[in-house]
């Protein structure tokens, strides 16, 4: 029964992927062309953010099993922190949490971002939820097309119904596809997710294969798969989930809020790279270089990716 | 003499600050003489002004002032101060000293009467370090101290002498600890905003007689993965501190955590919404393992664990006039000899959703004149004998009797009887508490004609509470109705129960009679566990997922009951033997009766009517005789079941099934 459910889910996914590959790009690209003609005259960069924090999940069992309110707390704090900087406008930030954080909604929001941004702009995407390698019921890894995984398993991020429905997730290739439609001169993607190796995240997948699949490989796999030109990708994946599951995000948000630049090059710009370094330092300090929590960066943005400005020096 | 000099210095400082703010555009020369004290200028464009703060400090003498302009900020320095000077920044938001290394940003070594104000101080090991036996009477005020990898402010002494440092009006955030006092005493920490530090807001480590007043200690993150004791204020072996009028809220971990700390005075604080994300981690409003602490006039609200958790072998704490609301529970009392008086407890519930204001697991406490609204008390066992007097629950008296006889109780909010007998409890109306009536080691009482609603237990009998009668009571919307443990010969008769979980539960309780009760809509109508020789007679059970459940219980008689409309099973018997199930009517259930690993039970002359499946068993051999199986039957009735060996099909037989239903 479960096997057939999984198969159905995968068929849905492949069909969805096909639709996304063929139809949405043509719509989106046509739209982009029109917008680019219009906006090329305006050299001022705009900053766009999609903050997507699942935090609560459709299946409720015991208190505190899968729900992580801290994710939602951090999502709201992140928005607040961005808005403290002069380069951000409230209308340019979308925050999606809890029961709204479905796979469909994520794709809609990504399309919103694709429609809004242009080549002068900066786009920032923050995703936090539970994660996992994609495995079938027999513990075999699944690499959906394109077959690009050395270890044979795509990395997936679970959506609101992710513990209930076998298809309620987004996988790295699909996310990468949408990111590739972004025209922005800089794209920053942050993924703070738990990797489920040490935590009974997902009732659909067995765990024996996961013994060979470390958070480090998950983080590196996800980061490399999502990297691209002008893109900085930050991930932090933890094996053991606990009450303070949001180490990386907590410190990263403080980095954006001023600590990154203060402890960095002090040029008034809190860059993604500086904020990452600040977060990595504190994650390693508080967890004593735990191998189970691996902040990872893949930076193909030339120079520093600006996220916020500590003062008006850097932002005119 | 010294004091006079300080006064003069303070006056000078005020004059200088006002003059510099008025004429900030005009930069002063390198020094100016002000009645004997030199002012040394750093930054700015005055002739010969210092470019480094440390150079000015080195050139200064005791009593001098070093004034730092913001136009050359940030200053990447690690300052060392060993003389009594005043270090003033032009503007705390824009005059930045950046440690930029793993060293301390500012170290005061063996120096007294140093003042540091109006800087942003960050990116060092400690933001400000005050150390050495001579480092007393320093003032740190009006600074922003952040982004330091150890402590925002670290006061460390080796000899335990009085320090009298004043920490005032600072913003201290994003450090490992906000303020860390290490073997340091009589410091005054006042009116600071201490937030979003990664371990603790304030940490007192073997530090006594400090005064912590008027601070806002919020949103400290408590990410110390190796130490569970994270808090807004964390005191370890620190005595006689005053913690007054602080807002200690939204910290991850506890609000206040006192370990091995005695005689502290905690007064007039707001301690609220301190939390852990998952239930198995601890997060108290105040946790105390110590002696003789005073907790007075605080508001202790909405903390995710106990509002106050008292632990130890001898408390002697005084807890008075506090508002303790919506914690989980209000107070957990696990040490003796405390006074808990004149507090208000409102709507506290523990992790199991039990309305508990005070959870008492100790003795010799004086619990006096407290007011409980929508919560009450819970007594752990009969060894917990305390003095409870003049407490009110939902406006009615909390009746707590120990060792009394021959009384009638009227109009109570909650009733707890320990080692009493012949008490009559009638016509009470009890609601919204943990247990309406608790009997511990209490005998021969009559509980008659009472109403219970929204309690966790309506009536809870335990620890050899024998020969009691519970009759004609109404239970509505309680979690559990009547629960009896480790007691014998009780009678439960003619009660009306509409319950969420278990209507009547027997746990290690024998020789009781359950008769003529009406039970509806409970998860378990009657649940019997490890209880023998009880008689369950003529009860009406309907719409309960499990009508009667018998586990590990033997020689009980289940007689003449109506068990109807159970959507799981009418009567379930688990690992129980030699029970007699006679003359019951089991109708419209998903399963009429189910046996699991239970032998030698007699199922005789029952009606099985319109059940989806009348009977089922797993690895059992029981006696079935003369039962009516939904329709007249001449041939023996085969009852299908399974045995354990690979769950093979098996069967029992009712050799003489009834031709017509019994009139039950």
Give a structural overview.
- The complex is a heterodimer of chains A (316) and B (664).
- Chain A is of the alpha/beta class and 316 residues long.
- Chain A has 7 helices and 10 strands.
- In chain A, the strands form 2 sheets. In chain A, strands 1, 2, 3, 4, 5, 6, 7 and 9 form an 8-stranded mixed sheet that branches.
- In chain A, β1 (47-53), α2 and β2 (93-97) form a beta-alpha-beta unit.
- In chain A, α2 (69-83) runs parallel beside α6 (247-262) and α6 (247-262) crosses α7 (272-287).
- Chain A is globular.
- The N and C termini of chain A lie far apart (60 Å).
- Residues 1-5, 20-42, 196-211, 239-244 and 312-316 of chain A have low confidence and may be disordered.
- Chain B has 664 residues and is mostly beta strands.
- Chain B contains 2 helices and 74 strands.
- In chain B, the strands form 4 sheets. Chain B has a 34-stranded mixed sheet that branches. A 16-stranded mixed sheet of chain B has the order 1-2-3-5-8-11-14-17-20-23-26-29-32-35-38-41, with helices on both faces.
- The longest helix of chain B has 21 residues, at 2-22.
- Chain A binds chain B through residues 63-64, 68-70, 242-245, 247, 250-251, 254, 258-259, 262-263, 266, 281-282, 285-288, 290, and chain B through 74, 98, 122-123, 146-147, 149, 174, 176, 196, 198, 221-226, 252, 276-281, 351.
